[in-house]
Amino acid sequence: MKRIILNICGSISVALGVLGIVLPLLPTTPFLLLAAACYVRSSDKLYHWLTTNKHFGPYIKNYREGKGIPLKAKVTAVVVLWVSLAFTIFLIIPLISIQWLLFFIGACVTWYILKQKTLYLSEASRNEQQTE
């Protein structure tokens, strides 16, 4: 059952990552990293497919090799995080203690995303050319 759930979550993450390639509001890299994390625990075949895919593989490879996360993905992830948190904190959750907890979690996630090395577009283009 766990493998099925992880495969479903991984596949949803891949779909959102694909949408993130063309839609400016969705970050690609975090969704593909989540998909890789799901697949590595549930399906060697899907994990191999994702990491060797010519379109998705470089996102994961750049992150794993310490080259960083594209600036667009970082900005989008932080913006989407805080928009959804603000909506939840101010309109959904009435308990102040839970609101503060969500704020603290959002601050920690933001800090983690921003401390990751940034992969600038020119570096990403060079990396893609080198792999071809």
Automatic annotation (TrEMBL):
Q: What keywords are assigned to this protein?
A: Membrane, Transmembrane, Transmembrane helix
Q: Which GO terms describe its cellular component?
A: plasma membrane
The answer, when asked if DNA repair is one of the entry's keywords, is no
Q: Which domain of life is it from?
A: Bacteria
Residues spanning the membrane: 12-40, 98-114
Q: Keyword Membrane, does the record have it?
A: yes
A Pfam family the protein falls into: DUF454
Name of this chain's protein: YbaN family protein
